[in-house]
Amino acid sequence: MYVREISEESRIYLILYMEDMLITRRDKAEIEELKQRLPGCFSMKELGEVRYILGMSIGRDRSKTIL
């Protein structure tokens, strides 16, 4: 797991296991910036929003999302 602290209240998380990568952060622009830089280091394929990773099903209730 890689954690980049942008400020005391703001972090971006990159979780990498074998061939699977998950990037999470509240600010979508920060995620996009990181995704633009990574292909220079790795071969990557965008698979969209995560639904299943490492044997876990990921669910989200967008009505409870905090912006």
Brief summary:
The protein is an alpha+beta fold and about 70 residues long. It has one helix spanning about 30-35, and strands spanning about 1-5, 10-15, 20-25, 50-55, 55.
Description:
The chain is an alpha+beta fold and 67 residues long. The protein has one helix at residues 28-37; strands at residues 2-7, 10-17, 20-24, 52-53, 56-57. The strands form two sheets. It has a three-stranded antiparallel β-sheet with strand order 1-2-3, with no helix packed on it. A two-stranded antiparallel sheet has the order 4-5. Strand 1 and strand 2 form a beta hairpin. The mean pLDDT is 79.
List its traits:
single chain, 67 residues, alpha+beta, 3-stranded antiparallel β-sheet, two-stranded antiparallel ribbon, 1 helix, 15% helix, 34% strand
Strands across the major sheet, in which order?
1-2-3
Cα separation of the termini: 24 Å
Number of DSSP strand runs: 5
Which spans have pLDDT < 50 for at least 5 consecutive residues?
Answer: none
Query: What fraction of the residues are assigned to beta strands by DSSP?
Result: 25-35%
Biggest beta sheet summary: 3 strands, antiparallel
What general form does the structure show?
globular
Total count of helical runs of at least 4 residues:
1
Helical coverage, percent range? 10-25%
